[in-house]
Amino acid sequence: MAEKVEFELVSPERLLISEPVEMVVVPGSEGDFGALPRHAPMMTAVRPGIIDIYQDGKVKDRIFVAGGFAEVTEVRVTVLAEEAIKLEDLDSADVAARLAAAERRVEEADGDLARSEAQRGLLVAQAMKAALDVRPAP
């Protein structure tokens, strides 16, 4: 049996995944990284993007995350996500509405803090739209 790494994905609402996997690819702030068993310990910010979970040599699950933090040890990968949605659960109409609302908030932002928060929301919505574009058609 191949070595596994324990993967946990936690959102503010609940523990979404806790299972041994062959590898997990996470959208880190400095670029995507793959974590396998015996990975060097590290912590990094997670940017909006897709987490790929590998089992039996192929991608088993794909999950969109809106950002967060990842901790990697030799035996565990933990992602604390701001928001997490299975790729197949992303709805194109909802994503389009979210993108339009985010664009509107950027235009209407009053002050640096509001503009920064609105731009962050726009970045997440744009990443969600991009995730839809890479999702295979049903």
CATH topology of the largest domain: ATP Synthase, domain 1
Element-by-element helix/strand order: EEEEEEEEEEHH
Give me the Rg, rounded. 16 Å
The level 1 CATH classification of the largest domain is Mainly Beta
Structural class: alpha+beta
**Helicity level:** 25-40%
Number of strand elements? 10
CATH homology-level superfamily of the largest domain: F0F1 ATP synthase delta/epsilon subunit, N-terminal
Tell me what portion of residues adopts beta-strand conformation. 35-45%
Counting H and I runs of at least 4 residues, what is the number of helices? 2
Q: Calculate the terminal CA-CA distance, rounded to whole Å.
A: 33 Å
Approximate shape = globular
Residue-averaged pLDDT: 93
How are strands sequenced across the largest beta sheet? 2-1-9-8-5
Q: Structurally, how many domains make up the residues? A: 2
Could you name the ranges where pLDDT drops below 50 across 5 or more consecutive residues?
none
Task: Please name the CATH architecture of the largest domain.
Answer: Sandwich
Tell me about the biggest sheet?
Answer: 5 strands, mixed
Q: Any key phrases for this structure?
A:
2 helices, 138 residues, 5-stranded mixed sheet, 5-stranded antiparallel sheet, alpha+beta, ATP Synthase, domain 1, 2 domains
Describe this structure in words.
The protein has 138 residues and is an alpha+beta fold. It folds into 2 domains: 5-87, F0F1 ATP synthase delta/epsilon subunit, N-terminal (ATP Synthase, domain 1, Sandwich); 90-134. Helices cover 29% and strands 42% of the residues. The protein has 2 helices and 10 strands; from the N terminus they run ββββββββββαα. It has helices spanning 92-108, 112-134; strands at 5-10, 15-21, 23-28, 31-35, 42-46, 49-55, 58-65, 68-72, 76-81, 84-86. The strands form 2 sheets. A 5-stranded mixed sheet has the order 2-1-9-8-5, with no helix packed on it. It has a 5-stranded antiparallel sheet with strand order 4-3-6-7-10. A hairpin with a 2-residue loop joins strand 3 (23-28) and strand 4 (31-35). Helix 1 (92-108) runs antiparallel to helix 2 (112-134). The longest helix has 23 residues, at 112-134. The chain is globular, with a radius of gyration of 16 Å. The mean pLDDT is 93.
